[in-house]
Design goal:
Length: 422
């Protein structure tokens, strides 16, 4: 191989330009020379490739998403490890440089694979971005964010990483067809067999509401919570389309649909009897449970080789639940103060310092205009409404669910349409 005779410095440059970790792994395993070169700068090479993939997103976010797999909050023994993991995530910048990156090559490969999942969802989100209110569909089609800016891409990826971490810890477990087949076999061989039951997460038995909110959302300024909401709704919309396809085959209250589904535990957070609605085709109250399985599960669903495989995977995991992020925002009244690193946004001179921060650390124009109009921002967590001067209202700057539908906290100001600023 002629490339093996290049100077070491050029070989390092070649390794730095590889598109992903898998390509790097293939090259260094195929060439002893490049393996030796890789060993000289292993940590920096891996970090550079991953950072190029994730762009402006702090690698602490995807690392937390990867490491939180299996750390279910409904298991009491996991609580200390969950608290430590989320604390390391928010204090990532304070860690020694040797502890800030991935642990080893295997974790780097997992991070690269996770990025490919998120990239697929990012492309879908941008391609299907909903038209904002007040903008004609024709004009929006001309400005649709098929190629998002670096900042827009980072907002989407960051929200997806955080959603995955949240779902890994506080969401339910996935149920597979293999588990269903194993239960069918066990039930056939033993009439007294008691099947395992699918259920929603019972994290609330081990974590208080404000405790959970503080560890996840208390570390974010309010516009990043709204970014999270935008991507939650995106996952909901994807399942709406999937269920629309299923409804064309058979209604929800049909025996065919029920036959696809394993036993459901009656002790759900927000139980709802299947098939009790007047519309036998309405599958929509399954969406929240499916969203809470995380972005990686949606990627798995979308990558199924056939409609039947996609339908069966969704059916195995369809639990009726009214628990959603919208409800979580509503019930989380008077949340605790922002925690590091988000506490920097509660300084008294935030109106002066906020515009000086990097774009990825600032709110986008959609969030600013919705909550603060075109004036300065004096407080990030609340705004005073003076519609009635005698009784001014203080409003929290999160929970614009209507804006989540079209990504109001995601898009840059440059995406305007006929003078209409988004």
């Amino acid at each position: 191989m002629a490339l093996e005779f290049l100077p070491t410095e050029l070989r390092i440059l070649i390794l730095q330009q590889l598109p992903d970790i898998q390509s790097l792994k293939s090259l260094v395993h195929a060439s002893p020379v490049y393996y030796s070169t890789f060993a000289l700068s292993k940590k920096s090479l891996l970090h550079d490739i991953l950072q190029r993939q994730y762009g402006l997103v702090d690698l602490a976010e995807p690392i937390a998403a990867i490491r939180s797999q299996g750390l279910h909050a409904d298991i009491p023994a996991n609580k200390t490890e969950i608290v430590n993991l989320l604390d390391r995530r928010r204090r990532h910048g304070e860690l020694p440089a040797s502890e800030q990156g991935p642990a080893d090559l295997e974790e780097c490969i997992r991070l690269s694979h996770f990025y490919r999942q998120l990239e697929c969802l990012l492309d879908t989100y941008c391609a299907q971005a909903s038209c904002p209110p007040g903008v004609s569909q024709e004009t929006w089609d001309q400005n649709r964010p098929i190629n998002p800016s670096k900042t827009e891409k980072a907002r989407i990826l960051r929200a997806l990483c955080r959603l995955q971490t949240y779902c890994n810890i506080f969401g339910p477990r996935e149920w597979s067809e293999e588990q269903q087949q194993q239960q069918n076999t066990a039930a056939f061989s033993s009439p007294s067999y008691s099947p395992l039951k699918r259920r929603s997460s019972s994290w609330y038995r081990n974590f208080g509401l404000h405790e959970m909110w503080g560890m996840i959302f208390g570390t974010m300024p309010p516009w990043e919570v709204e970014e999270f909401g935008c991507l939650w709704v995106f996952l909901q919309q994807q399942y709406t389309e999937i269920f629309s396809e299923i409804a064309q085959e058979f209604p929800r209250n049909s025996h065919e649909w029920q036959a696809l589904r394993p036993t459901v535990d009656g002790m759900e957070l927000f139980p709802s009897v299947d098939g009790d609605g007047s519309d036998g085709n309405d599958y929509n109250d399954y969406r929240n449970h499916l969203v809470s399985l995380g972005p990686s599960f949606l990627y798995k669903v979308l990558r199924q080789p056939s409609y039947e495989a996609r339908r069966n995977l969704v059916a195995c995991n369809a639990i009726s639940s009214k628990s959603s992020f919208m409800i979580l925002v509503k019930v989380s009244r008077d949340p605790p103060s922002l925690l590091y690193p988000a506490d920097k946004y509660e300084s008294e001179d935030i109106g002066r310092t906020l515009p000086l921060m990097p774009a990825i650390e600032q709110p986008n124009s959609g969030w600013k205009h919705h909550w603060h109009g075109y004036g300065p921002i004096h407080r990030v967590r609340e705004v005073v409404r003076n519609d009635n001067p005698q009784e001014p209202q203080i409003e929290r700057t999160i929970g614009n669910a209507a804006g989540w539908q079209w990504g109001y906290a995601i898009w840059d100001e440059e995406r305007n349409a006929a003078g209409h600023r988004l």
